[in-house]
Amino acid sequence: MSEAVSSRVCDTPGCGGAAKLQCPTCLKLGIPGSFFCSQDCFKSSWGEHKKLHKLAKAVSGGDKKGQYNPWPGFRFTGALRPAPLSSTRVVPDHIARPDYANHPTGVSESEREMRRSTGIRILNDEEQEAMNVVCKLTREILDVAAEGSAVGVTTDEIDRLVHEASVDRECYPSPLNYFEFPKSCCTSINEVICHGIPDMRPLQDGDILNAPSVPHYGKNKAIGIMKPGHVFTIEPMINEGTWRDELWPDNWTAVTQDGKLSAQFEHTLLVTETGCEILTRRRVKDGQPHFMDQW
């Protein structure tokens, strides 16, 4: 095992200890992550972990069977293809969890109860301040993800950055296990409209990447006039071609039906007496989106 690993968490499910070692085979294959706190943890995870090596070889062309494809016969609408997934990351026990975190199928009973309501909850001053704190932390985590995104970086590595940044801030990454979503953020590439699952595919020059990490609050389809104290998420999805979508067999990845590009923008807003406050705005460069930094 390779030494000199710092500020990482052990990848062994249920451990959460500080990582001190990294899998040498993963380093050789260019697989990010794969950190462990001890040889014992590494050995106990080996049966499952070694599958990642085989899958990574398949993606890079090292597998004689050709390109990795978990759904033989499925008709893809565009050029993007799935890649292998790493193991689901673990959130330390001391961090508070939403009700779906430990549900066997990721069902949120509190969300179901909320949907029975006909109105939108108005947050009081204390609740608004709490939402401000949550969204400030979310913005910090989004910035970590954006700064870690580059050509050659896998979306699985971005997921690791989001997961660890969340844990560092005593936060639970909200997508994790929501209706069994296996990762800590969504990463939607090119023709993927939304809900792409982070995997071992490296980002390529010219890719469109959407990696939202925004807290949703309230009932999406409530009818009425927005009032001060309401908090909502707006997330326009703009497609180059048709508005119609299809779903990959993973039951999450939504893609454009014609395979053309899609881009999504997402923010959480608080309704005030004079308008709206963008709670998840970028705190520097007057809120300019990260992709504009490249211009």
TrEMBL record:
Domain of life: Eukaryota
Record protein name field: Methionine aminopeptidase
Organism ancestry: Eukaryota, Metazoa, Spiralia, Lophotrochozoa, Mollusca
SUPFAM superfamilies the UniProt entry points to: Creatinase/aminopeptidase
A molecular-function term among this protein's GO annotations: zinc ion binding
Domain C6H2-type intervals: 7-60
Keyword Protease attached: yes
GO cellular component terms attached to this protein's record: cytosol
Protein family per UniProt: Belongs to the peptidase M24A family. Methionine aminopeptidase type 1 subfamily.
Record keywords: Aminopeptidase, Hydrolase, Metal-binding, Protease, Zinc, Zinc-finger
